Each structure stands twice: as C-alpha cells, then as structure tokens.
Amino acid sequence: MLLSDELDIQSGCTVCAEDQQAIKLDGLPEFSVCRKYAQVVQDTLISLIRQGEKINSVIGYRVGRTRGEMNAQGNRSGFSNHSFGIAIDINTDHNGLYGNCVQFGPRCKLLRAGPWRPGDDPYSLQADGLIVKTFKQAGFKWGGEIEGQQKDFMHFSLTGY
Ligand SMILES: [Zn+2]
Description:
By secondary structure, this protein is of the alpha+beta class. The chain has helices at residues 35-50, 130-137; strands at 20-23, 31-34, 58-59, 87-90, 97-99, 109-112, 141-142, 151-152, 155-157.
C-alpha cells in the first residue's frame, strides 16, 4: 500500500525497492533505477563509455526522504527524484551541488560533493559535452542547467530537479 506521495505521477515510479532494477556496468559499482527507465539509462551509459567518456561513478535509487533537495517549483520536497529511482548522479566527486548559483561563477557555494571544474577536470561534465548531450537526447534534463539558486552538476532526471 502506497501513500500518495510515494508515487511519482509523471514517471509512474514509486519509492519501493521492488520497482527498481539493478544495473551493473564494467568498472562501475552497481546501482539501481526505476524499471521503466533502466533500459534507457543502461544503453545511454554503455554508449557513452564505448565512446570514451570518463565515468567513474553512477548513483541512482536512494532510499528514504532526503529533505533539502528542491523540486521543480523550487520547494523543499519530502522525496527527491532519487527516492523514485528516476534521477542519476554521475561522477559526484567532480560535479558538485552548488547554492547561491543562479548563474555559475565565483560566488556559487559548493554545498555537497566535489568541485566542478569543466575543461580542467576530465570527470567534470560540460554543457556541450557528450554526456550531457546524450542524456538530453534520451529525455533527461541536466541539473547543471536548472533554473533557480541551485546547480547540481552531477544530476540528471526528467525535470532536472
Ligand atoms: Zn542527484
């Protein structure tokens, strides 16, 4: 039995572990995403790795409420898109979450994970890079391009939040 906020209406995915599917790729720790999106996430990552893109960590489904993350309306929400298995984080140590960051610059404050150094750090994602482009083609939005105070450079989801 699901509570109303345990189902994500847009994706049809839930917070339940049974609705998640594990993905194991060469050289990466296993992670899980919502079954509905497992194939597209796996195919996209395999294609990027084959093309030589630098990926050393992927995080998907994360159990529990992670308060503090923003939803598309900019409100704090009980469940983040990771709780539904519909968001992934790539190379967290090189693609941080920043606050005070309507536009990226020296005043942005690193809130979580490692610093974002596009161009200098090959594991940092770039707006015009293949990883961002390919996930966008697959229907995902990038947290590095979301509106508002935060930029989440590791993060991809249907809404970007
Ligand atoms: Zn994330």
